[in-house]
Amino acid sequence: MPFGIDFSVESYLENHANKFTGSFDPNCYLYLSRASDLFDLAEYGGSVGAGFRRLDLHKTLVIGVTTDMLFPLHQQRELADGISKVCPDTRFVPLDCIKGHDSFLVEMDAFRPVICEFFESCCD
Questions:
Q1: pTM reported for the whole predicted model
Q2: Rounded CA gap, 112 and 74, in Å?
């Protein structure tokens, strides 16, 4: 007997999976996922701080989502704090979205103004 959809989140995930598989090579996703899992900034200089110092950044934006359990808000804040030591023009924006890690996929109206403002400020 095949598995059915018992919870609303399963319907959401199934819908996104169907859209995703039609537009994205699964092998590419596997390589991206593995690269994300294995990447360690500290390997490039001996510490995270040294890794940040190797970056040539002029302006950065870090967006965190209050309900993101994969990349919690405190980690995004730490990332912004670390980057700000080598790029003083670093902006951290916490967003209060309810869809967790997938908020950027379904709550684009929350992200759009922040990202647009960032890109517009890059032209100044």
A1: 0.73
A2: 22
